[in-house]
Amino acid sequence: MAEFEYGPAEFMVAQFDTDRPSAGVVDAILELVDSGTVRLLDLVFIERHADGGVDIIELDEMDGDIGLTDITLDASGIAGDEDVQEIAELLQPGSTGAILVIEHLWAKELASRFFESGGVVLHSERIPAPVLNAVAAEAYDELETDELETTES
After folding, report:
1. pTM for the whole thing?
2. Which of 6, 13, 30, 81 is the most exposed place for a label (fewest CB within 10 A)?
3. Distances (CA, A) of 11 to 3, 23, 48, 52, 72
4. For residue 82, which phi and psi values (nearest 5 degrees)?
């Protein structure tokens, strides 16, 4: 089997209306890491001030009051300066963003097997949870409507 040092990874960007994520967000990240589901490669915070100015805050610059000191990064720097600057432009003034680069450990062996057999992933797309839930609810409502119409016929 082809051995990869890293499996598939994903840039995830979250925006917060506060100056930092809550302790619950940090706990969720730590739980995913501890369970072996993901490996946290990089984590960068961006503050976008009301006047549009931007401050980049590295993990080691954050204080430990919400558990960030418990996080270890396995490949700090993967979120490069250009990436960070582009993402900063997406943030609304007066908000804070978090850039997480996570490796999907559950998919590492699958990626190795694809590579070993000459396969390549042609497309992969993450569907955000709110979008998936809205589409699923709509599909469920349509299914129920169709079943009711069939029953009434």
Report:
1. 0.74
2. 81
3. 22, 21, 19, 23, 17
4. -65, -45
